[in-house]
Amino acid sequence: MANIKSAKKRILVAQTRTDRNKAIRSKVKTAIKKVDAAVAANDKETALAALANATSEINKATSKGVYHKNTAARKISRLAVAVNKIA
C-alpha cells in the first residue's frame, strides 16, 4: 500500500476508472451477443434492431475512451457484415 497521499489517490482513481471501463465493456459485449444470437437464429428484424443498439453502445464506449476508434469501427463492421449475410 502506498504511503504518499497522491499515490493513494491515484490508486483510488485507477480503481474507479477500471470499474467504469469494465461496466462499459460489459454492456458492449452483451449488445454484441444479442446481435450474434439473432444472426444464429436467422431473425433479420431482431438482428437489425440489435445491430442498431450495439452500434450505439460501441460508439458511446468509443467517445468515453474505452475503445480506440479503429477497434470500434472493426467491431461495428463485423457485426454489420454478419447481419447483412442473413437471407
From TrEMBL:
Key words, A-Z: Ribonucleoprotein, Ribosomal protein, RNA-binding, rRNA-binding
One term under GO cellular component: small ribosomal subunit
BP GO terms, sorted: translation
InterPro entries tied to this protein: Ribosomal_bS20 (IPR002583), Ribosomal_bS20_sf (IPR036510)
Superkingdom of the organism of origin: Bacteria
Molecular function in Gene Ontology: small ribosomal subunit rRNA binding; structural constituent of ribosome
Keyword Cell inner membrane (UniProt): no
HAMAP family: Ribosomal_bS20
Function statement: Binds directly to 16S ribosomal RNA.
Family: Belongs to the bacterial ribosomal protein bS20 family.
Name of the protein in its database record: Small ribosomal subunit protein bS20
Source organism per UniProt: Acetivibrio ethanolgignens
